[in-house]
Amino acid sequence: MKFITAIILTALLSFTIGLFTALPWWSFAITTLIIAAAIHQKPWKAFLAAFVAQFVLWAVLAFIIDIANQHLLSVKVATILPLHGSYILLIFITAFIGALVAGLSALTGSFLRKR
Amino acid sequence: MRIVPLIISGTVTTALIVALNMQLPVGATKTPRLGYFLSPQQGFWQNAEPADVLFDKNISINGIKSAAEVYFDDRLVPHIYAESDADAYFVQGYLHAKFRLWQMEFQTYIAAGRLSEIIGEDGVKTDKYFRRLGMVYGAEQSLKAMEDNPETRAATDAYTDGVNAYIKSLKESDIPFEYKLLDYKPEMWSNLKTVLFLKFMSFDLTGQGDDDLKMTNTRNLLGYDTFKKLFPERSNLLDPIIPKGTAFAAPSIAVKTPANVDSAYFNSNNNAVTATAPIIPNKNNGSNNWAVSGTKTKSGKPILCNDPHLGLNLPSLWYEMQITTPTQNTYGASFPGAPSIIIGFNDSIAWGVTNAGRDVKDFYDIKFRDTTMQEYWFNNTWKKTEFRKELIKIKNKPNDTETIAMTVFGPVMYDRNYKSKNEDGQYIAVRWTAHDASNELLTFYKLNRAKSYTDYVDAITSFECPGQNFVFASVSGDIAIRQQGKFVAKWKRQGDFIQPGTDSNFMWQGYIPATENPQMINPVRGFVSSANQMAVDSAYPYYLGRAANFPVFRGLIINRKLSEMNNITPQDMQKLQTDNYSVLAEFARPFLLKYLDETKLNAEEKNQLDILKAWNFENNINEKGATIFKIFWDSVYKQTYADEFGKSKLPLSWPDQPTLVDALKDSAYAFADDINTSDKKETWKDVVLIAFQKASKTLFKTSQENKLEWGVFKDTYVNHLLKIPALSRLHLPIGGGAESINATTANHGPSWRMIVQLTDKIEAFAVYPGGQSGNPGSKFYDTFIDSWVSGKYYSVLFLNKQEARHNNRIKWHFTFTKA
């Protein structure tokens, strides 16, 4: 139950803080860390919950934008980066990078608590 | 707390964020800040515009005086309806920024010599060049002129306010894509930036002057007498803008050739220059324009056409729009970065421009007392140098200060401190009309409101740099053309080479009064036209600059076709503007075939020759003959002149194409001889045979690669300003060529095509190789390119406010109200 709660809260707060676009892009690392510290889980579970939450959040956000945009920009960016023009790979990498930052933040957060 | 894991985990997390928050070097370039760039809520994803986006908006904003409305049509062309001129320009600035902010700013950064602030050290070379050329200096002078005039001041102030109102309204996540890619942020706009942008156009369109250095080397190599043979004052093929035989009034300025001109200038071979400009405007920068009177049209009313040939870039240099206020109702192409319409029409008149190509940039050899450059020798005395310091900020590096020596002529462009392949230690100052205070915007401001021929003349008279051929037509039936600019009254061949900088006799002696500029109204032949050719024949009393500045072929074919055409419709004009015929090939091929001894060719060569023989002179995409001609012709050119010009390692100017065409008529042409063979005197027969055999090898390879068809061979593309292929449009199947009316080469060509029929209800057609949105994530980014490629035009919506409200091609609506 804690695991699911952590996922939902992490995603929700990440999304919310992301609406404040004047804040740095990595602000979700702070909210994620706080949640991991607040909802006590085993470190690997805290990591996984945040990883999944952020991965799904960023993948879904990017996916929705990309569909509406008919892949116009994603294909161009995936050529520049270079990912052979694959928008799927670009969405995956986007989600993965966010997830990794979130996961590590949550791990750090979980270590803030006593065993 | 578990201290050790905490520290490790905290460190790793921080390190990852730091790494994702910086630009990482990859080869010669850098990545964006990846975490930021990929963030769906802040990064590039936010620039991915929904395909079904609704642009409608009610904008309540500070800076607008009363109110304005904007109707966007289905091509995203805005039609502005404002109650005052100030509000219209405010909205124009806002819209330019909304759709083109990044390019506006990027172009002015380049013009101001500030590229290093964006891209770091790689930009320093470009920045130093523009600083030394005096771009900022010139812009400062012109800013004063522009702000001294109440009309242009008010227009530009309002425009700047509009741009800044948009920038202030921008959320971090909404800044254009390229800022995110290169990792910097927009800064506030200013009137100076508008002037800098216009100066950049002056730079781009007066580049012919830069050839002085190379011309000097060529003269030194050949000697002045031989030079004159290869570089005649005028091409024999020339069909000038003002027809041959026109009488001109006596000149009001008597230009004095310096007494010592032969020894100190023509025959002085002491300026071997290694310096070359790092950025040279494209030689093909030019344009076509023409207007036909009602006697030649089906409607009985004039038709005006214009297509400026410039570099083909994305986002496009042009932004199409309509501006309606109580003082004007104007439609056309605007420059993102400047108020008003630059090429277009209003209720009463239409106008267009082509480049005049006159030489208004000269170089002077300065003798400094010593390397400190504190004093220079001028009119038999040591004169004190003034210095101008320019600060160059470099991203992630300490600032650099460029100290520029200023002389009576202008800034010292090349000296020992500035190494642009400049190893000879000479000091060369540049004198350029763009250094002077001038107010080009006033011309466009007035043209936008002009009602008649008199208004048109009044509008263009103040136009100084870059000199243009302004074509004109009115609903009342007049057609006219005038070459307008601040043109230097020069003695013959003044400024073709580097001039002595020690003697005031070599300075410019004055400027030709506007009334003496080449001009024509309602000629009997029923049309006026220009295509960058020399404006006048030798009866004109002033020197216009070297013939190399003035291409001849497009002018010839335009005039020939217009003479033959009658009962003309806008559709006929569309065909004419996109005509691919090569008059160069028409002139040259008969001679090439005459001189070529077919019996000496092998089967493959014969085969290629047969295709060339059957070719119809059309540079159409599927024509192999066009490619064969091009490679063969280039080969003949090289075979003819490479022996003479190969003797020097210095940068040289080579003869013009028309010179070679003309030379082919001379069966005993001296330069046909290969000076490297002492035992034999070659003639055209030898040159053409060797040239064809060499060309044939290239052609065979081209054919193996399946690139023999002209469209594939020419391989036209529209390049993103950052030269990123993914943001560009490549391999466009479009015909034409430098010598065709459709002057499309690889990355250069008609950047805006416009046809205006001046019936009481104006009918206009236009297209440009770009799209209204500068956002690579918008479907409006490159919307018009395919139409442009296939020679199609859009029928322009020119509406009053009432019509705009109800027109079914109007899709979106902005309302601006006072906050």
Any chance you could write out the topology, listing elements then pairs?
The complex is a heterodimer of chains A (about 120) and B (about 800).
Chain A: H1 2-18, H2 27-38, H3 43-68, H4 72-80, H5 87-111
Helix pairs in contact in A: 1-2, 1-3, 2-5, 3-5, 4-5
Chain B: H1 3-20, E1 23-26, E2 29-33, H2 34-38, E3 57-61, E4 67-73, E5 78-82, H3 85-111, H4 116-119, H5 124-133, H6 135-148, H7 150-169, H8 177-182, H9 191-205, H10 212-222, H11 224-230, H12 261-266, E6 286-292, E7 303-311, E8 313-314, E9 319-325, E10 328-334, E11 343-346, E12 349-355, E13 361-365, E14 375-378, E15 381-384, E16 386-394, E17 397-406, E18 412-414, E19 428-432, H13 440-449, H14 453-460, E20 468-474, E21 479-484, E22 499-500, E23 519-521, E24 527-530, H15 553-564, H16 570-577, H17 583-595, H18 603-614, H19 624-645, H20 657-663, H21 684-704, H22 710-714, E25 716-720, E26 729-732, E27 748-750, E28 753-757, E29 763-767, H23 785-789, E30 794-795, H24 801-806, E31 810-818
Parallel strand pairs in B: 3-31, 5-9, 8-25, 13-22
Antiparallel strand pairs in B: 1-2, 4-5, 4-31, 6-7, 6-24, 7-27, 7-28, 9-10, 10-11, 11-12, 12-20, 13-19, 14-15, 16-17, 18-19, 20-21, 21-23, 25-26, 28-29, 29-30
Helix pairs in contact in B: 3-7, 3-9, 6-9, 10-11, 13-14, 18-19, 19-21
Structural features, described:
The complex is a heterodimer of chains A (115) and B (819). Chain A contains five helices and no strands. Chain A is mainly alpha-helical and 115 residues long. Chain A is elongated. Chain A starts with a helix and ends with a helix. The mean pLDDT of chain A is 95. With 819 residues, chain B is α+β, with helices and mostly antiparallel strands. Chain B starts with a helix and ends with a strand. In chain B, strand 10 (328-334) and strand 11 (343-346) form a beta hairpin. Chain B contains 24 helices and 31 strands. In chain B, the strands form seven sheets. An eleven-stranded mixed beta sheet of chain B has the order 3-31-4-5-9-10-11-12-20-21-23. In chain B, strands 6, 7, 24, 27, 28, 29 and 30 form a seven-stranded antiparallel beta sheet that branches. The interface between A and B is large, with 40 and 44 residues.
